[in-house]
């Protein structure tokens, strides 16, 4: 006589649709996990590099399942007053249902973390691209007008102010190095700032001349 309720209890979970609380429980767990995105990412960040020391789904899934199970027990008839979720795991049919839901939640949690990691990588790539762009456009200020950036090409250095000098195999880095070394050499012998002008003779090409009034 005592076995009859147990048989009815087991038959309830072996129905084609599964236990009646499964769909409601799955939906509520998913909703709670989605609404806890900020909490999940905060735990992930605190866990360190990829939470490599934590088991899959160890960040928030178990907590979500336990919280929703507590609420479900008080809402649905037939579950109210039953055993806690961890004790329910002794029933193989209920265990299979909970494991199925747990795996779905773990995949959802991992999906959120992967999306977050992709976002971090994208931000890092954008930052690196911006830094590379800054390095590439670390222009040389015209020493004559001291306002505009010089246009430096392999055979030409020019400026909007009128500076126009023919060069050979010139680069911004090489020109910057030449200017810096010349200014450094001058500063070792003189405290005054030199001036730059463009000069050219009748048969000579234009040259950049550094002179000092002292």
UniProtKB/TrEMBL annotation:
Any one annotated GO CC term: PML body
Highest taxon above the source species: Eukaryota
Swiss-Prot/TrEMBL keywords: Metal-binding, Nucleus, Zinc, Zinc-finger
GO terms for biological process, alphabetical: protein import into nucleus
RPA-interacting protein C-terminal domain ranges (all copies): 141-213
GO molecular function annotations of the record: zinc ion binding
Domain RPA-interacting protein central, chain residue ranges per copy: 60-130
Domain RPA-interacting protein N-terminal span(s) in chain numbering: 8-46
UniProt-annotated location(s): Nucleus
Protein name (record): RIPB protein
């Amino acid at each position: 006589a005592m076995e009859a309720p147990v048989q009815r209890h087991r038959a309830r979970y072996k129905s084609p649709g599964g236990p009646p609380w499964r769909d409601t429980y799955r939906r509520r767990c998913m909703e709670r996990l989605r609404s806890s995105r900020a909490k999940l990412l905060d735990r992930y960040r605190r866990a360190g590099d990829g939470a490599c020391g934590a088991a899959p789904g160890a960040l928030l899934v178990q907590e979500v399942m336990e919280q929703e199970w507590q609420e479900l027990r008080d809402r649905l008839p037939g579950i109210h007053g039953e055993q806690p979720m961890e004790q329910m795991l002794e029933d193989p049919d209920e265990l299979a249902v909970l494991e199925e839901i747990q795996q779905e939640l773990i995949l959802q949690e991992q999906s959120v973390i992967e999306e977050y990691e992709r976002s971090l990588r994208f931000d890092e790539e954008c930052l690196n691209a911006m830094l590379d762009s800054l390095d590439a456009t670390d222009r040389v200020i015209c020493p004559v007008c001291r306002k505009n950036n010089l246009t430096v090409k392999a055979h030409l250095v020019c400026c909007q102010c009128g500076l126009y000098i023919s060069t050979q195999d010139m680069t911004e880095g090489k020109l910057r190095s030449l200017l810096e070394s010349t200014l450094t050499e001058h500063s070792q012998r003189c405290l005054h700032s030199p001036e730059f002008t463009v000069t050219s003779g009748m048969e000579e090409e234009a040259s950049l001349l550094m002179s000092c009034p002292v």
